[in-house]
Amino acid sequence: MRSLATTVLLAGLAACHGPDPDARWLDEAREIAAPAVAGSRFPSLARGSDGTLVMSWIEPGAEGEYRLRYSTWAGSGWMDPQTVAAGRDWFINWADFPSVVPGDERVWAAHWLQQRPGSVYSYDVRLAMSSDAGHTWSAPMTPHHDGTATEHGFASLLPAGGSARVVWLDGRDTAGEHDHSGHGGGAMTLRSTVVTRLGQQTRAEEVLDPRVCDCCQTDVAMAREGAVVVYRDRSDGEIRNISVLRLTAGGWSNPVNVADDGWRIDACPVNGPAVDARGDTVAVAWFTAPDRPRVRLAFSLDGGRTFGPPVEVATGQTAGRVDVVLLPDGRAAVSWLADSPGGARLLVRAFSTEGPAGAATTIAASDVARSSGFPQMALAEGGLLFAWTQSGAEPRVRAAFARLR
Fold it and tell me: Which residue in 63, 249, 279, 303 is a FRET match for 391, CA 20 to 30 A apart?
């Protein structure tokens, strides 16, 4: 959702060829007080096209209620938190979590998940829109209308042009079966639609891919030509590569593999990709394990049509759970969870198209329990902002800021 002249990006990328891979590029992370209360969990960071940066999270209320709350970054701290929605019938999951996403023209979008009778994994996406930068919200709506007691989730939102594009995984063809193996009555599909600032759906649901991995996050970014969606695909032979779809004036492109990892797995790894875009430059980071666990990164300089050879970010003791941010100089910062006998760490490192372009930096100690969720990263003025869940008997959202050098 950020824009910069393509020539500047290409110059920045060219300048990054051959840098010292162990150079300091980021100051030590400084923890900052998060506005979330004890018991909060599963933060999401999102940056609007005007630079507005929002953190959202789930926190418990009274008598089994959950609330979706958010706060806006003010440059050195957080504004007072606000509530988008609350309910007692929500589906709360470590990997499939809500979001609040600022867009342009003061139009924001938010989503959460509502349990549906049928099974533990029967739930719907609920969506609300704001026309005044998050102060008030439309009545919630559901972007899918099949009415089946199946899984609908892992949604990504992209507000732009006074409306919002929503993309989600849809299990209406799976007969409600869910064991991460995807051996139900049919395949999980990837679908999309558009919702206006008033919360009204403007077009029928579109099937973007008829067979995708069941439980990996999707992600979306805005390139020069249009939206770029990334997700974990699933072939008939159970190869689960990361794929990209582009939305242009002519409609949706066919899926393109970011790389051919050749990872054959008869279950969903619950470890989705991340994407960022600026102009014609697109960066995608992901987890894979065809031989051993790996985190990889690939650049596209033509808006996501083609990608260069993947760059190895980490191998061996990595849990994945990646995020990626394009830096102002054209490098990409990739964050991931590194596991070890002494405990996990949230790491971040800068990369160019040629490989490492800065030293790996530890942001925080963590763990690989499901309750720790998926750490988040976003570009803030002068640096990078991080958010994660501190797991334990009483979880809590924590945040840190590290200044770019």
Answer: 63
- Surface-to-core class of residue 246, CB atoms within 10 Å of its CB (0-12 exposed, 13-18 middle, 19+ buried): buried
Provide the 3-class DSSP secondary structure of residue 283. strand
Nearest to 159 by CA among 195, 191, 190: 195
pTM comes to: 0.93
Question: Any idea which residue has 């770029």 for tokens?
Answer: 228
pLDDT at 349: 98
Give the amino acid at 57: W
Q: Residue ranges of the alpha helices (H) in 221-356?
A: none
Return all residues near 333 (Cβ < 8 A) that are at least 6 apart: 26, 324, 325, 326, 327, 348, 349, 350, 351, 377, 384
Residue type for position 134: G
Place of tokens 């299990």: 171
Helix (H) or strand (E) holding 44: strand 41-47
- The radius of gyration computed from the CA coordinates of the chain, to the nearest angstrom, equals 19
| Angstrom distances, CA of residue 108 to CA of 101, 111, 202 | 6, 11, 17
Q: Tell me if 299 sits within 8 A of 307, measured CB to CB.
A: yes
pLDDT computed for residue 2 by the predictor = 40
Q: Which of 181, 133, 167, 125 is nearest to 150 (CA)?
A: 125
B/e letters for 311-332, b = 16+ CB within 10 Å, e = fewer, are bebbeeebbbbbbbbbbebbbb
Angle at 285 between CA 284 and CA 289, to 5 degrees: 130
> What does the pLDDT look like over 116-171, one tens digit per residue?
998 899 999 999 999 999 999 999 999 999 999 999 999 999 999 999 999 999 99
Our CA dihedral for 24, 25, 27, 30, rounded to 10 degrees, sits at: -130
